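User: Can you predict the 3D structure for this chain?
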Amino acid sequence: MKKIFATNLHSMKQYNQAKTKETLGGALLGLGSTMTVVDLAIGLFSDAKYPTALTYAGLGMVAVSIPILSGRAKKMKEAVSSYNEGLKNSSSNDFDLNAVVNQNGFGFQIQF
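Assistant: Here is the predicted structure, written as structure tokens:
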């Protein structure tokens, strides 16, 4: 995707922002879930008090990751639509039409 969007700077910026949101949101979601499950396991298998600050921190991370992850789809759609709009604006009918004759016969060659 980076090679495709490289020709359109706005699309590339939106794509990079979407990937950043995906990475950050996924990391927060995974880390928060892990912290909550670990604290639950500690509470179940020992006489420790449950829930602790670890659970609250994990749930907070999960809560923060939800809006971050929900914004990535919008950024990706914006990148694709910006790229497609750039294609519409710069589309020109540049093509080559040549007659070809060789040992296999003759025909037409169209290059876009």
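DSSP finds three helices and two strands in the chain. The two ends are 22 Å apart (CA to CA).
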